[in-house]
Amino acid sequence: MATRTRTAERYARGLAAAVAAVACLFLAGTAGQPRTAEPASPAAPPQRDTAPMADSLTPLNP
After folding, report:
1. Closest listed residue to residue 9, CA positions, set 17, 1, 24
2. Distance (Å, rounded) from C-alpha 31 to C-alpha 18?
3. Burial of 22: CB neighbours in 10 Å, binned 0-12, 13-18, 19+
4. How far is the C-alpha of 46 from the C-alpha of 34, rounded, in Å?
5. What is the tens place of the pLDDT at every residue in 4-33?
6. Would you state the torsion angle of the CA atoms of residues 39, 43, 47, 48, taken in this order, to the nearest 10 degrees?
7. Residues 54, 60: contact at Cβ < 8 Å?
8. Contact at 8 Å (CB) between 35 and 29?
9. Termini Cα distance of the chain
């Protein structure tokens, strides 16, 4: 027959498991691409990936 564990031991194991889970979540959340060393210049205009679209109300050939 297995011996009974003390209540304090059960709480200590639960607390250790909770601390380990929080540490894993923190490490997983901070993993990824590192930030660039130089932030973008605020004076530079934002770069666009696509060409601007013509307005549907404006005729293409005036």
Report:
1. 17
2. 20
3. exposed
4. 21
5. 889 999 999 999 999 999 999 999 988 877
6. 140
7. yes
8. no
9. 93
